[in-house]
Amino acid sequence: MPRMTAARAAVEILKLEGVEVAFGVPGAAINPFYAALKASGEIRHTLARHVEGASHMAEGYTRAKAGNIGVCIGTSGPAGTDMITGLYSAIADSIPILCITGQAPVAKLHKEDFQAVDIASIAKPVTKAATTVLEAAQVPGVFQQAFHLMRSGRPGPVLIDLPIDVQLTEIEFDPETYQALPVYKPAASRAQIEKAIALLQESERPLIVAGGGIINADAPELLVEFAELTGVPVIPTLMGWGIIADDHELNAGMVGLQTSHRYGNANFLESDFVLGIGNRWANRHTGSLEVYTAGRKFVHVDVEPTQLGKIFAPDFGIASDAKAALELFVEVARELKAAGQLKDRSAWAASTQERKAQLQRKTHFDNVPMKPQRVYEEMNKAFGPETRYVTTIGLSQIAGAQMLHVYKPRHWINCGQAGPLGWTIPAALGVATADPETPVVALSGDYDFQFMIEELAVGAQHKIPYVHVLVNNAYLGLIRQAQRNFEIDFQVKLEFENLNSPELGVYGVDHVKVAEGLGCKAIRVTEPDALLPALEEAKKLAAEYRVPVVVEAILERVTNISMGGAGIDAIGEWEELATSPADAPTAIRPLAV
Predict the structure, then answer these.
(1) Catalytic residue among 30, 51, 274, 299
(2) In whole angstroms, what is the distance from residue 454 CA to residue 285 CA?
(3) Running DSSP on this structure, what letter comes out for residue 540?
(4) In the annotation, is 555 catalytic?
(5) What is the enclosing helix (H) or strand (E) of 472?
(6) β-sheet with 158-163: strand ranges across
(7) Active-site residue 479, yes or no?
(8) Is 25 known to be catalytic?
């Protein structure tokens, strides 16, 4: 039997499980693992500037391509605690990533050794499993189990903590006989699917709510086929955006309190039946449950049985992997269509598209300083259907989701539930690493951008090009808007006069200088007509220099973005609405007047 260190065995298992890339920061307690990584030579490593950044890079890497599992590596103590935010973001959105940490020697774990912390206990609430391996011979089994857990049921992250002496201990391990554990996913029965379709058949105005679980299951094509067979319009959730193209005749728009379309909410409120697949009824999607559920029946399909009934009780629940369920949905729908037994939904579907052409928000403003709506209008012009957007939280993300267009699955990559500021830059680097051929465009407000701005240097060092649109109003815009309810405007202003860049006025941080100092390219735009040329130039610079390129748009200080605090029937529209096609020139459908 071959003998090798436990650290080398762990690296061999990573390779056998399909890992090609890892993100991390070395340190004393994880150096044996890094030595094994170097000796193997087959796993490409990207050196982050912050360990939390490595965890977000791993998440972006996973999200970009079906089958990927991002790996992040750090040393003992604060490296692990720094990655907790990344683990939380991953488990919140059902994203598998593997976090590997170093640890003090086993004999020192309870002796307050330098950087010794019980990271497994800290990480347990935000992982599917978190283990400190105390016996070297257990390392292969722990790694084998980690990949099984990450891929089975509802996907999610795992943390493995390796004491330094465990890493260095030689064990017997034969890579040639290693076999991955079978992945477990619940599957719907034919009877369950037939009942769900029977309930759909009884309705007059049905909708499908398509969640991120469909993307995780790599089943968007099946969802679109089922929608086309039945003629049922589709509401993608924020995590499911891109499952069905925005310009598809059955895309009825997004629903919610924030990241929603006027027509999406209106279409939903007209429905009488909802089939939710791979979604979790998130509160910013549903708003008031009384409003959301009134007058309609619900069928819910989810890979996690305990998710059924968690938010509200559906009329019928099915515990199933989205792909397994959709294969049966398509099979049964084909049979019913061949027998001429499916209802004609054409009039209902057409009405959803009529609302799409009637209920639009204005994007074309010529104001200086710029309104953010104009930025997204110009982004729609500059970036085509192949573009993959990456963003986290804030008014920039909310407005972007209301006004940008997405045409393919995995082309809107957004940490929907956790929403940690600083996520966007490292996640975009992970996404661009996973798929360097697809254009990546990140979107940040100024505060998100500043949280982990140092990770831009990773893009410069490792030649990872993408375009980063930065909307800067020197304000915590979303928090300021929320503070209106308290009649305050407190501790949300980022303004100051930068003595090194007086031309910025009160906009403070000179993002162009910082980005350039970190080895990237940057362009500042102050007038709306200069936006499109700047975005086109950014694409050229990214292609030429192979580094991140920042386009900073200087916005008006205060803008309120459309959103509601209660139900989806009560969204506050703060700005002018579109009244002519010229008000929303890049809308999916020209405004009907």
Answers:
(1) 51
(2) 33
(3) H
(4) no
(5) strand 466-472
(6) 44-47, 21-24, 70-74, 97-103, 158-163, 129-132
(7) yes
(8) yes
Q: Is 235 among the residues known to form the active site?
A: no
pLDDT tens per residue, the chain (593 residues)? 689 999 999 999 999 999 999 999 999 999 999 999 999 889 999 999 999 999 999 999 999 999 999 999 999 999 999 999 999 999 999 999 999 999 999 888 887 787 789 999 999 999 999 999 999 999 999 999 999 999 999 999 999 999 999 999 999 999 999 999 999 999 999 999 999 999 999 999 999 999 999 999 999 999 999 999 999 999 999 999 999 999 999 999 999 999 999 999 999 999 999 999 999 999 999 999 999 999 999 999 999 999 999 999 999 999 999 999 999 999 999 999 999 999 999 999 999 999 999 999 999 999 999 999 999 999 999 999 999 999 998 889 999 999 999 999 999 999 988 889 999 999 999 999 999 999 999 999 999 999 999 999 999 999 999 999 999 998 877 778 888 888 888 888 888 899 999 999 999 999 999 999 999 999 999 999 999 999 999 999 999 999 999 999 999 998 888 898 889 999 999 899 999 999 999 999 999 88
Q: Whole-model pTM above 0.90?
A: yes
Q: Is 16 helix (H, G, I), strand (E, B) or coil?
A: helix
Counted residue by residue, the chain has a size of 593
Q: Cα–Cα distances in Å, from 372 out to 91, 148, 176, 378?
A: 31, 44, 56, 10
Strand partners, 557: none
Q: For residue 557, give both structure tokens.
A: 């200080």
- Alpha helices, DSSP H, located in 41-127: 51-64, 78-82, 84-92, 119-123
What would the two tokens of residue 59 be? 């998440």
List CB contacts of 97: < 8 A, sequence separation 6 or more.
55, 58, 59, 62, 69, 70, 71, 72, 86, 87, 90, 150, 157
Sequence-distant (6+) residues with CB within 8 A of 35 are 7
Cβ neighbours for 551, distance < 8 A, ≥ 6 positions apart:
467, 468, 469, 470, 522, 523, 525, 531, 534, 535, 538
The backbone torsions φ and ψ at residue 299, rounded to the nearest 5 degrees and listed phi first, read -115, 135
Amino acid at 118: D
CB neighbour list of residue 352: distance below 8 Å, 6 or more residues apart: 233, 250, 252, 253, 263, 267
Nearest by Cα to 542 from 456, 472, 427: 456
Instruction: Kindly give, in sequence order, each residue whose CB lies less than 8 Å from that of residue 384, ignoring residues fewer than 6 positions away.
Output: none
Q: Catalytic pick from 16, 122, 479, 514?
A: 479
Q: Which of 149, 476, 494, 547 is catalytic?
A: 476
Dist. CA 462–CA 442, nearest whole Å: 18
